[in-house]
## 1
Amino acid sequence: MTSLSRRAFVTAATATLLAGCGGGHGTTTTANSPVEQGSSTPSTGAGAKAAHTLARSVPVTLRIPAIGVDTPVMGLGLASDGTVQVPPIAAHDRAGWYRNSPTPGQRGPSVILGHVTVGAYGDGVFRHLARLRTGDRIEAGLENGTTATFTVTRVRTVAKADFPSDQVYGDVNRPELRLITCGGTRTGTGYLDNVIVFAALTPASP
C-alpha cells in the first residue's frame, strides 16, 4: 500500500462506517451491545497452514454461498467529510471495495462494504451478513481472473459509537478480509449498529 493510501486508510479508520445504510425495508440482527461468534481474536487462523499472499488485483465479484450472495463489486473512496463512501441506493444493489485498503489476498485487511437495506428497493446485498458463522467460505473474484477464497473467523455486531477501528483497519501479518454492513435496532434515520465479518485467506490445498 502506498503512503498516500495508508494515510487515507488510517483517516477512514476514525470515521463511522455506513452511517445511512439505506433505510427502508428488511430485518436486521439483534443486540445493541456487542454480539460475537467465532474466534476471540480477528487474527486467529483458518487452519494451521499459512496462506500465501496474492498479487494485487482489484475485486470485481463477491460470492458468499452460505447466505446466497453473488454480487458485482464496485470501487469506493472517501466522501467529502472523510468517511468511507458507500454503494449507491439502487435497485441493483452491489457491494463496494474500499480502494485505499489492500486488494483481497494482499497482506493486510481488505475492506468490502454493503447495505442491509436499500430504501424503497427493499433488502440490500448484505441483508443476511450476520448469519455467517466461523468456517463459512467467501470468494472474491479478482480482475486478473483469479479467486481469493477466505474463511470466516469471527462475526461481530457492535454499536456504531463503539466501532472497533483498530481491529477492522489495524495491520495484520497475513491476508484478511472485512465485510461491513449495518445491523441492530433500526431507527428513522438508519441503524444503530454495524455487523462486521472477519475472514482470513484460505491456505491452498497441497
## 2
Amino acid sequence: MSARSLRPHRDDVLLAVVSVLAGLALWSLGVHSNNSRHLLPDWAALVPLVVLGAMELLRRTAPRVTLAVGTAGIIADQFTLGNLATVLIFTDLMYAAVVYGKPAMARRLPVSTGLITVAVTIAAVAWLRTPQALLIGVITGIVSFGPALTGATLRNHREAAVAARLRAEQTALLAEMDRSQAVAAERARMARELHDMVANHLSAIAIHSTAALSIDTPETSRDALGVIRENSVQGLAEMRRLIGLLRDAGAEQEAVAVPSLDGLEALLGQARTNGSASGLDFVLVDERPPGPPLPAPVELAAYRIVQESLTNALKHASPGSVAVRVARTGGTLTVAVDSPYGDRPGPRAPGSGAGLVGMRERAELLGGEFTAGRSGSLWRVRASLPAEVEAVEA
C-alpha cells in the first residue's frame, strides 16, 4: 500500500483532533466511566484515548487495522478510570470499518457484533443475576452492534445508489445506441429511396445527352431533348415527393402516395421511351392473381427493385428484350428481371454499384431473398418477398 493511499482525509484529521481534545477535557474535569473498578493509575486512561484518536486518521484507508487496534484499546480502557471519548471513538471506528471496509468484512461485522451482544447479555445475567445486568448487554449493543448496523445500512444505500446510477447510465447508453441505429437506418432508407427515385431519370438524361453530343443531327438532338425534358420533370416531381417525406408531417397534411405494383406498366412505358435509342424493348408479365393488394412495404420494395433493374438495363444491357415478371405463389411474391448481357454499342451511363446493394437491403429488411448475376447471355435479377401482412409486420 503506497504512502499516498494511507494519507488521512482532512475530515478524519479534524475528527481525530476534536476527539482527543474532548477526551482530554473530560479527563481534566474528572469525568470518568470506570471510577469504581480501575486497576491502573489515573493517567493510564489517556493511553487508549490517544491510540484510538490516532486510529481515526486511518479510518478510511485502513479500516481493518483501525478496528483491530480499536478493539484492543476499548478493552484496555476497561482497566483504567475510563473515558467516554474513547468509547465514542470506538463506535466511530466500528462504523467506519463497515462503511469503508471490504464487502466481506462489512457483511460479517453486523452479524458478529449482534452475536457478541447477545452472548454478553446472557453471560452478564447468568453471572450477576440482577436486572441491572441487562444494561451491560445494552451498552455492548450500543457500542458495537449499533454502529455496525448503521454503517451497513448506509453502505447498502450507497451501493443501491451506485447501482441505480450505473443502470441509468447503461439505459442512457442503450438509448443513445438505439437512436444512432435508428438514425443510421433512416439515412440508409433515405439513400435507397433517393437512389431508386432519381437514378432512373438521371441515367436516361445522361444516355440521351451523350447520344445528342455523339450524333450531331437535328432529329437526334430533338428526340434527346424531349427525353431529357420528360425525365427532368419526372425527376423533379420525385425529388419534391422525397422532400415532402422528409418534412414533419402535420395532422392535416395529406398522405404522400407510395409507388405500388399497379404502376409497373407506366414504369415500363417510360423505360421503353428511354431505351429505344439503345435498341432495348421492355416486356411485362404480371402473373399475380386477383385479390387484395399486398402490404405497402412489399409493394414499394418490389416496385423499387423493378425500377432499379430497369435503370441498370438502360445503363448496361445490350440491345434486345428486357423481361419483367411478377408472380405471387402462396405467401411469396417473386420479382424476376432478365436483361441481355454483352457488348453494347453507343453511350453508357456510369454506375456505382449502390443499386444492387439497395435492392438486396430492401429484400432482406422484409425477410426476403435477393440474387443478381450473369447467367449465360442474360443478367438475372431475382427477389422473393413475403406477401403476407403477418410476415411483414413480424
## 3
Amino acid sequence: MTAMLALLVACGGRDAGRTTNSFFNPQEIPLETYTAEQIFERGEFELQRRQPDEAAFYFAEIERIYPYSEWAKRALIMQAFAYHQDQDYPNSRSAAQRFIDFFPDDDDAAYAQYLLALSYYDQIDEVGRDQGLTFQALQALRAVIENYPDSDYARSAILKFDLAFDHLAAKEMEIGRYYLRRDHFPAAINRFRVVVEEFQTTTHTAEALHRLVESYLSLGLTAEAQTAGAILGHNYRSTEWYEDSYRLLTGRGLTLTSIGDNWLSAIYRQTIKGEWL
C-alpha cells in the first residue's frame, strides 16, 4: 500500500481535461485497474493535502466504476463532504441527496442531511443575499431536527436554525429601516410588523417595536405607538430601544400603555395578559 500511495502522490495535479496527468494516461495505468479501496484512499489523501476538488473526483470515480460496492456508498458521503469543502455547494447537495435517497436508513444518512442543509446555510452569511437560500436552509435544518433528533447533528442543526431564522428577521429590519429613512412609513410598518408577528423569538423584536413607535408617531397614530411602547416596556425594559421609545412617547405627553383595538393591542393581550380569545 505504501508503494501504491507513492505512485499516486507522484502523479501530481491534473488539468481540466486530465490529459497531462500520467495517472490517467491510458499508456500508463488506467484508474479502472485500481481497487475501490485504493481509489478511496487516494481521495482521503487529497483531502489531507487540502485538495477537496481532487478528492471529490476520486470519490465520484468509485461511484462510477464500482457502483454497487460498499465502497461506493462510503465514497458517496465523502463526495458530498469533499464538494462542500471545495464550496461547490450544488454538487455537495446533489451527492448528499443521492445518499439520502439510496441509503435512508444508513447511519450516515443524518450526516448527509446535515451536509445538505449546510450547502444552503453556509451561503447566507450576508444579509443582502437571496433570502430563498435562507428558507431552503431552514427547511433542510428542520429535516435534520425532525428526522434525526437523536443524532449528533440535531443540536448543531437547532443552533443553525435559530441563526437562520434570525437572519430572515434581520433582512426584514434592513428593508424596514430603508423605508423609514425615506419617510415611507406604511411600508416600513409592514416590515416591522412581520418581525413582531413572525420573528418574535429573534434578537430583532425590541428594535422592531421601537421602529413601530417611531413610524406610528410620524403618522400621528398615537394609540398604536403607545401600545408598541407598552409591549417594549413589559418585555424589553432593559434595552436601549425601550429607553428611546420611552423618551419619544413621554416627550409628547404620552404613556406606554396599550390603547385601542389594533393588531398591536391584540399581541399585547395575547403575550402579556394571556388572553388568546
## 4
Amino acid sequence: MKIAVTGASGFVGRHVLQVLALSKDVQVVAASRRAADASWLPAGMAHVAIDMGGPVEDAFRRLGEPDAVIHLAWDGLPNYRARHHFETQLPEQYRFLRQLAESGLRSLVCAGTCFEYGMRSGELDENLVPDPSNPYGFAKDALRRELQFLAADTGLALTWARLFYMYGEGQAPGSLYSQFIAASKRGDAEFAMSGGEQLRDFLHVRDVARYLVTLALLHAGAGVVNVCSGTPTSVRSLVEGWRETYQMPMKLVLGHFPYPSYEPMAFWGRNAKLQQLMGAM
C-alpha cells in the first residue's frame, strides 16, 4: 500500500511517519511545504515539497499516486481566531484535495478539530451538529462539508479525524507541554499556568499518530471519528502528572494566566466509535 502524508514535517506528521515506518508493506511519501533536510525522515521515505498555495495540478502524480493520503497540513496555528483560516486556508485546502480526488485518490484521512463543536460543554459525540465559534473551527467544519460533497461525486472514501488535545515531543515551543519541559530543564523553581481547573480530553501524540495510521490502513471511509481519550482530565492534573513523571519539584503558580475565551471550561470527546474501529483491527 502507498500512503502520502501532508504536513509531514509538523508536530503530528513526524509522529505519523514514525508509526508508518514500523508498518509492513507500506510505501510512504512525506510531503511538506518546503524542501526538507532528509535527516528528520525515517529511513527509506521519500520527500516531496508541495505548497498548496501554488500550482497543484500535478500534486497526485508528485505524491506518487498514493492509495491513501493522511492530510495534516494547515497553516496559521495556534492563532485560532485569525480570518486567515477561512480566507486563505479553506480555499487552498479544498482546491488541493479536490485535485487529488479528481486525479484518482481513493481514500483520504483528513485532520479535523474538536473546535468544530463550538462552545458546548460536556461530552461531545460525533452525531452532534457542529457549531464552531472561532475561525479555525469554522474553516475546518466548512472543509469537511465541502469534502463530503466531493466524496459523493468522486467516490472518495473520506475519514474525518476530529483531533482533541495532544501533547508530546516536538510540540510547538509555546505549548503547555513544551513550556513545562523547558522549565524543568532549566531547573525552574516555579511554573506559571492558568488556574488549571478546565477539563479537556488529552492524548499523547504517539497515540494520535497510531490511530490516524490505523484509520488510513484499515478503515477507509469511516466518516467523522473523534480521535480522543474519552476521559475528562483537568489541566492541573495533567501538569501534576508530568511533574511526577519527570520528578520535578516545581511549584505550580496557578491562576497566572487567564482561561481562554474561545473554549468552554469543560468538554471532552466520546470515543466509542474510535474504540470500535480499533477493536476491528
